[in-house]
Specification:
This protein is an alpha/beta fold. Helices cover about 50% and strands about 15% of the residues. It has 14 helices and 9 strands. The strands form 2 sheets. It has a 7-stranded parallel sheet. Helix 6 packs across helix 7 and helix 6 packs across helix 8. The model has no long low-confidence stretch (mean pLDDT about 95).
C-alpha cells in the first residue's frame, strides 16, 4: 500500500511547495522525491511508485481533477457520454514513466521497486460515475443495464493497462500490483465477469511479455471470492485486505502463493499492545508461506510516525 502521504512532514512540505496532488504526480522530480521519502525515514524493503490509479482514464481522454478537500472527478462521466467520444491523450502518462526512471536510478539493489495500476472494474467505477462513491451503485446499474457497452469500457481500460504497466516495467519497476479497491461491491457472477476475467487477461499479457516480473493482485473486499480470484487470474501473489482472517486465507488460497498484508491501518494508528497483538497474529498465520508484511489498505494521514517505527521493529524482530 502507499507509503507516502500526509502523515509525513516532509511530504506535507513538498505538497505545499508544489500545489495540488496532480501537480506532484505530473512532476517527475517531485514524485520521485515523494517515492523515496519513506525509505529515507524507515528503510523499507520496497519502494512504491507515487502516482494515482486514475492516470489511465486521464490518458484515455477524460479530464481528471482533484478539488480542495474533495475526491477525484472525471469528465465527461461515461454514464452520460460514449466511450468513443473520448480522444486518447497518451502523453499524460509520460510523467509517470519519468518518475519510474528517476526512482530506479536512486534505489539500492537491495530495495525492490513496485509499480501499480488500477484494475479495470475499479477504474471503470470512476469513469462511469465521474467520481468515487461508497457503493458504486451508478456503475453497477450501468453494467447490468448495458453489459455490452460496459464490456467495451472494461476492455479499453485493460488494453491500456497492459501497455501502461509494461512501460513501467521497462522503465525500472520490478513487480506490479493491480488494485481492485471496489471489487467487494459485486455479486459473485459480476465479480467473475468484471474482476476475474479482465485481471486474468492483463496478467496473461504481462506474463507473456515480462515473464520475470511478479504480478500482485489486490481484490479488496473479495472475501470468499478470493479463492476463485487466486485460482483463475494467474497472479503471482495476493494482497489481503484487513477484513480477511489471515488464518482462513492461509488455509484457502494455493499453498505456494505469496501473500501481502494485512494489518488494519487503524490498529497501526492505535499502537501499543493492540498493534503488537495484531502484528503477531498476522505473522503467526503464515508460518510456511512467503509473506510480505504490509497494511490491509493505505496508511492514514493521522498515523503516528512512532507507531510505524514500532511496527518495523516488531516485524523485523520476528524474522
Amino acid at each position: 500500500m502507499r507509503q507516502a502521504g500526509r502523515y509525513l512532514p516532509e511530504y506535507r512540505a513538498l505538497r505545499a511547495e508544489k500545489g495540488g496532488f496532480l501537480d506532484l504526480v505530473n512532476d517527475s522530480d517531485a514524485a520521485a522525491e515523494v517515492t523515496v521519502q519513506p525509505l529515507r525515514r524507515f528503510g523499507f524493503d520496497g519502494a512504491i511508485l507515487f502516482s494515482d490509479i486514475l492516470m489511465v482514464p486521464s490518458a484515455m481522454g477524460q479530464m481528471l481533477s482533484f478539488g480542495v478537500g474533495e475526491g477525484p472527478a472525471l469528465a465527461p462521466p461515461l454514464v452520460d457520454s460514449a466511450l468513443s467520444a473520448l480522444e486518447a491523450v497518451p502523453v499524460r502518462l509520460e510523467p509517470v514513466y519519468g518518475t519510474v526512471r528517476k526512482v530506479a536510478a536512486m534505489l539500492s539493489p537491495q530495495t525492490t521497486f513496485l509499480g501499480f495500476a488500477g484494475s479495470p472494474w475499479t477504474v471503470a467505477t470512476y469513469m462511469v460515475a465521474g467520481h468515487g462513491s461508497k457503493d458504486q451503485a451508478e456503475t453497477r446499474r450501468y453494467a447490468y443495464r448495458d453489459p455490452q457497452a460496459f464490456a467495451e469500457i472494461i476492455d479499453a481500460i485493460a488494453a491500456l493497462t497492459i501497455e501502461y504497466v509494461g512501460k513501467q516495467i521497462e522503465a525500472g519497476v520490478e513487480a506490479v500490483q493491480l488494485f481492485d479497491s471496489w471489487s467487494g461491491s459485486l455479486s459473485p457472477a459480476q465479480f467473475e465477469r468484471w474482476v476475474i476475467a479482465p485481471n486474468a487477461a492483463i496478467t496473461a499479457a504481462l506474463h507473456a511479455r515480462y515473464p520475470d516480473t511478479p504480478i500482485i493482485g489486490f481484490p479488496k473486499g473479495a472475501g470468499a471470492k478470493l479463492a476463485a480470484y487466486a485460482r483463475e487470474t494467474g497472479v503471482d501473489a495476493l494482497g489481503l485486505d484487513e477484513t480477511l482472517d489471515p488464518v482462513w486465507a492461509n488455509a484457502t488460497i494455493p499453498q505456494d502463493m505469496p501473500v501481502q498484508g494485512n494489518l488494519d491501518p487503524l490498529a497501526l494508528i492505535t499502537g501499543g499492545e493492540t498493534l503488537d497483538l495484531a502484528i503477531d497474529r498476522i505473522i503467526a498465520a503464515f508460518p510456511d508461506r512467503p509473506h510480505v508484511f504490509n497494511l490491509g489498505h493505505g496508511i492514514l494521514q493521522d498515523t503516528p510516525i512512532s507507531h510505524v517505527d514500532r511496527l518495523l521493529a516488531r516485524v523485523r524482530g520476528a524474522v
